[in-house]
TrEMBL record:
Domain of life: Bacteria
Protein name: Integrase family protein
A GO MF label: DNA binding
Keywords: DNA integration, DNA recombination
PROSITE patterns in the record: TYR_RECOMBINASE
Pfam family, one: Arm-DNA-bind_3
UniProt key word Translocase: no
Domain Tyr recombinase: 238-441
GO biological process: DNA integration; DNA recombination
Length: 458
């Protein structure tokens, strides 16, 4: 390694240039102080001095400019005295490293899943608490079921074979809906856990400093494990379920407020907003989380527009949406008790306690299936059903895409998000009807026809 002997100064240190190879500059003022310059130009202060036994040792002091030249000289002088007194500085550093590694070994899979949930619950809906009675998110619940035997084991000791074995051995505790395998849930658990492990290790999208866990750990990757859903013929991937006209006719009478009396449900009729929220989802083709998080302040009553603060985007980052609402939807909102009594920041469709978003959907869905005589559909299928009805009524695909918030019609024209306010005003002045409002009005008419008309053959 090349060496230079010089009287170091801050100016001299700043002028040091990378050469592609490591070299050293030796300070003439403080004997034994060395500035070690890496191939990339990073300067690290080290001390070369003899210990109490006369053995030459090299002790790292710190990096420049975090450690100034004056501080480096002071540290070198102090370290020399400590070495002469018999202190084993390098041995102490090694012990700290080994202790840290031992602490890392104690970090369990359960612990990092909890860390990830706390870190990302605000930005990822699948990692938010499922309801007021539990702190567990849906993602954590699935992971804890499938990987139950690994949860309390040190995460650095778990191999990809361990994770693969958990997936292969997982069986449903209570088989439901006629499913004969647990591959779907095991696949979901794998999909939820994979980014957790990447975050812990600082891989993929978490490579940059600050994006990953503060203390990275060498953990396995699930990329080498098999996805059980990929070769399960009972799992077809993208769901395509759409309610038929007969099913809609059976279900719609129950989607009202006050809620209908359904067996097994104990919640009071005036406290249960799940049925009317389902009707609202069907009338607006909205996502469940959008409806559950909807607040009265999001409704522009003057222009009949639902201003969603954020929508899930299939392209680009998160963005808002201004959805024009037809009169049937506004009439539905006006019939709710919160239209006149609620504060702006209160939920439009609160839970039974009135303190949070709607919950216990599975229980309500089962009761609704029994009451309506329908089966094999859930609340998420209402959005797809609404889009299918609009498509069958010749609503342009581009308008349906706007309603579903799959595309931002203003993005291509580089128009600001606040333009939706002025576009609404322009349509009023031009006496032009909004295509989205017209499409949703047509949808409302179709649903009203299905609900009130006897379509059975005489």
């Amino acid at each position: 390694m090349a060496q230079r002997i010089t009287a170091l100064s801050d100016a001299a240190l700043r002028s040091l240039k990378p050469t592609g190879e490591r070299y050293e500059v030796i300070d003439k003022v403080m004997q034994g102080l060395v500035g070690r310059v890496s191939a990339s130009g990073r300067v690290m202060f080290v001390l070369r001095a003899r210990n109490a036994a006369g053995k030459m040792q090299t002790v790292t002091l710190g990096a420049y400019p975090d450690l100034t030249l004056k501080s480096a000289r002071d540290a070198a002088n102090r370290t020399k005295l400590e070495m002469k007194s018999g202190r084993d500085i390098n041995g102490e550093k090694k012990l700290v490293r080994e202790t840290t590694l031992m602490e890392q070994d104690k970090t369990t899979l359960r612990a990092v899943v909890l860390e990830y949930e706390q870190r990302f619950s605000a930005s990822k809906s699948s990692w938010r608490a499922r309801g007021p009675k539990t702190e567990r998110s849906g993602a954590r619940q699935v992971i804890e079921r499938v990987y139950a035997d690994l949860l309390d084991k040190p995460i650095t000791k778990l191999s990809d074979e361990d994770f693969a074995a958990s997936i292969s051995n997982y069986r449903r505790l209570r088989p439901s809906d006629g499913r004969t395998t647990a591959n779907g849930q095991a696949s979901r658990a794998r999909a939820y856990l994979s980014p957790v492990l990447d975050w812990v290790a600082g891989r993929k999208s978490f490579q940059k400093l600050g994006a990953s866990r503060t203390q990275r750990l060498p953990v396995a990757s699930l990329m080498t494990t098999h996805d059980p859903a990929s070769d399960d013929p009972t799992i077809t991937g993208k769901r395509t379920r759409v309610l038929t006209e007969a099913e809609l006719k059976a279900v719609l009478p129950f989607l009202v407020y006050p809620a209908p009396e359904l067996e097994t449900l104990r919640l009071g009729r005036h406290l249960d907003f799940r049925p009317i929220a389902m009707r609202f989802m069907l009338l607006t083709a909205a996502r469940l989380d959008e409806v559950c998080s909807m607040r009265w302040q999001d409704i522009d009553r003057t222009n009949s527009v639902w201003r969603k603060p954020a929508v899930k985007s299939t392209r680009g980052g998160p963005r808002g949406q201004a959805l024009p609402l037809p009169e049937p939807v506004m009439a539905l909102l006006r019939e709710l008790p919160g239209w006149k009594a609620a504060k702006p920041d209160q939920l439009v469709f609160p839970n039974g306690a009135g303190t949070g978003p709607l919950d216990n959907w599975t229980r309500f869905q089962k009761a609704l299936h029994i009451a309506s005589g329908t089966t094999d559909w859930h609340r998420h299928d209402l959005r797809r059903t609404a889009a299918t009805i609009m498509h069958s009524l010749k609503v342009p695909a581009s308008t349906i895409e706007q309603i579903l918030a799959h595309t931002d019609p203003l993005r291509g024209d580089n128009v600001g998000a606040s333009a939706s306010h002025y576009i609404q005003l322009g349509r009023v002045l031009k006496n032009a009807r909004d295509p989205q409002e017209e499409a949703l009005s047509t949808l409302a008419e179709a649903l009203a026809y299905i609900e009130t008309t006897d379509t059975r053959e005489g």
